[in-house]
From TrEMBL:
<dbReference type="Pfam" id="PF13927">
    <property type="entry name" value="Ig_3"/>
</dbReference>
<feature type="domain" description="Ig-like">
    <location>
        <begin position="7"/>
        <end position="98"/>
    </location>
</feature>
<keyword id="KW-0812">Transmembrane</keyword>
<dbReference type="InterPro" id="IPR007110">
    <property type="entry name" value="Ig-like_dom"/>
</dbReference>
<dbReference type="InterPro" id="IPR036179">
    <property type="entry name" value="Ig-like_dom_sf"/>
</dbReference>
<keyword id="KW-1133">Transmembrane helix</keyword>
<dbReference type="InterPro" id="IPR013783">
    <property type="entry name" value="Ig-like_fold"/>
</dbReference>
<feature type="transmembrane region" description="Helical">
    <location>
        <begin position="108"/>
        <end position="133"/>
    </location>
</feature>
<dbReference type="InterPro" id="IPR003599">
    <property type="entry name" value="Ig_sub"/>
</dbReference>
<protein>
    <submittedName>
        <fullName>MILR1 protein</fullName>
    </submittedName>
</protein>
<keyword id="KW-0472">Membrane</keyword>
Length: 140
């Protein structure tokens, strides 16, 4: 009898988030639904290998953890899957993280300045009848 080796299917590259901020930790998962086990996965950014080979003996995704530390980390990611079936290396879809909008502190600063000016105006308005008018009458 001959061992039957099934070719792998195109792996799917995914992440729990598509938007990331600088300094955020993210994960990438790569899974080929079909093919004889074990399956070996390798992750890439652009065309640069970013992980050692991850060998899976069960039908489960290979996962890597990344820290988005600079703008260059927002490039295109892919993964590659292969098994013992000859000449059957498959590459995943491309995946890109997009930069999440960071909340602007300028809006909070403007609101704070307006509130401070409003408090000064209220304080001045309250000071007129209690301090300024009596002082003005006393000088007459």
């Amino acid at each position: 009898s001959f061992p039957f080796t099934e070719p792998i299917s195109k792996p799917v590259l995914s992440s729990s988030t598509s938007q990331a901020k600088k300094g955020q930790n993210v994960t990438l998962s790569c899974l080929s639904e079909n093919g004889t086990l074990p399956i070996t996965y390798i992750f890439f950014k652009e065309k640069q290998n970013i992980s050692p080979p991850v060998k899976k003996n069960k039908r489960e995704a290979a996962v890597i953890f990344l820290c988005i530390s600079s703008h260059s980390d927002f490039g295109t990611y892919k993964c590659r899957a292969e098994n013992s079936f000859r000449n059957n290396t498959k590459y995943s879809n491309s995946f890109n993280f997009t930069l999440a909008e960071e909340r602007s502190h300028s809006r909070a600063l403007v609101i704070s300045l307006v509130l401070i000016l409003l408090l000064f105006a209220i304080g001045f308005a309250l000071a007129i009848p209690f301090f300024i008018i009596p002082a003005f009458k006393a000088s007459e």
